[in-house]
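Input.
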Amino acid sequence: MPKAPDISVVVPAFNEEESLTELNEWIGRVMTDHDFSYEILVIDDGSTDGTWAKIMELSSSNPNLKGLKFNRNHGKSAAINTGFQHASGNVVITMDADLQDSPDEIPDLYKMIVEEDFDIVSGWKKKRHDPIGKTIPSRFFNYVTRKISGIKLHDFNCGLKAYKNVVVKHIDVYGEMHRYIPVICKWSGFSKIGEKVVQHQARKYGVTKFGLERFITGFLDLISVTFVSKFRKKPMHFFGTLGALSFIAGFTISAYIIFQKIWSIYNHKPFRDIVDQPLFYIALVAIITGVQLFLAGFLAEMYTMANEKNSKYLLIEKVGF
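Output.
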């Protein structure tokens, strides 16, 4: 079995034909200068220009460069996840193909993983070459993500990151979750997360592939990854709590209405029929909703327990075998 390279560089690319030659040369120069063995995995995410032809051309001249091609555009998360599955390096580096991430940062990122034993190191583009319409919303979402996740990073969405190989083999990145890979790592048990200030280059070729809609989808993805991370193993904690609160509220309102009628009859006071009061129907809906939520939590818990029997766990130590 051939020895694993020191570094795998995973590069998702969508219509980046112009930048790939320069990126390949830049990465190769850095690796040679620092005597790293390496591989470059370029994932063509359904490009409509000559990106794939350029990847094949570069691969023929550089045996360290490998290409993977999607049949259509599946998104950056799918490209990164595919790169993770095929990466064999001891340290895995992700970077964008547009030359805004500097390969000169690779040696320091590698050192932080190998020598300082971080599970993941995320880049921080402290000085950005982006328009204000992109930087201000980005700062807002980074702030919200810090508060929700408890991970003290300044730039969750920076494409330049470094990982231990074992990390990328035990996480799944889907949808648009590439923005929240540190959150996924933390909830998967890889909690030693570092940060490094990295150089951010101005875009040299082409145009950005992300519009304003990414801030809406980004926020929804944050809610999704937070929910799944916290309640994936114990769905009853979420559905059961909501169901219990809804049932108790409905039962309390119903009991109050019934008690009010009995009291009025006993004291010969005028009263309305229970079914004539809108509050009764609200209470009834709350009770039914509470029961349904509780049953949803119960079924989800059973499903989780059934799947748990077939789950594969990562063992980080053994003794006495």
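The mean pLDDT is 84.
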